[in-house]
Structures are given as C-alpha cells and as structure tokens.
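Subgroup meeting minutes
Present: P.N., E.W., G.H.
Scribe: E.W.

1. P.N. recapped why we're keeping a running log of single-chain structure predictions: easier to compare across weeks, and new members can see raw inputs and outputs side by side.
2. G.H. added today's entry (136 aa).
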Amino acid sequence: MSALDLHMDENRCFTHMLWVTAIENMTAATPKATNSSDIVKYFRIKDAEVRLITELLPTLTDAGMRDAINSSVEKSRAIRRSGEAFGILIMIVYLESLNLQHLMTDTLDRWDPVNLPREKEWKTQLKLLIDRGAAL
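Output recorded in log:
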C-alpha cells in the first residue's frame, strides 16, 4: 500500500502495480526447505519498483499475464463501485535467473490512510521482511 502511495491517490490501485525482482540466495550449504518460510529464505529482493500498468503491459510477452492483469484492474474497479471492497493490489515477482514472472493479487477490503500511515521506507522494509522469511 505504501509502495503504491494510495495516500496520495486512492485510485493508484487501478493504474499502478508493484514489480519485485528476486534473486536466488542459495549455496551448497543451504539446508533443504521443510516448510514455506524456508523456501522464501532461498530468495532475496534485488529491487522493487512501482510501475505504471499501461507502460508495463506491452513489455510482457505472456498474453495470459496481460489478460490477468487487465482482468484484475477491471475487477478492482467493479468491487470499488459496488462497495464490496476498496480494490485489488497487483504485484509481479520476477525471478531473474529463471526469467520467470509470477503474478500476485491481494484484495484490500478497506482503506483508511489515517489508521495506516504511509511507510516512506517501504522498499527497505519489504527487503527486511523477506530476509527474515516472511512470505509475500
């Protein structure tokens, strides 16, 4: 939410998305994963940036990914209009070494900028959470 800067413009969930580039964080000494939080530790965030959806879509080679993003934006607008929820947040995690893009969405039920202050250092916080094994 802080990355998209919904505090500045609540409609940015319709126009912007988060692009996270992940890199492998494994060596021969890395223990085998026994649960999902172990798997997350196999990766680190190299970078994260907010991208304008209309500029990103033409660069994606997977038509299914483009369709899924467009569908998510349409659904986000519809649930906002209906009052069902605030909107859908969209993120792609890009695993650089495999040239793999994974689309993730999360429905934000409500939005209250007063109770959820903007985290200006959102990128640093995101990297720390992943380094500690938090799943996205």
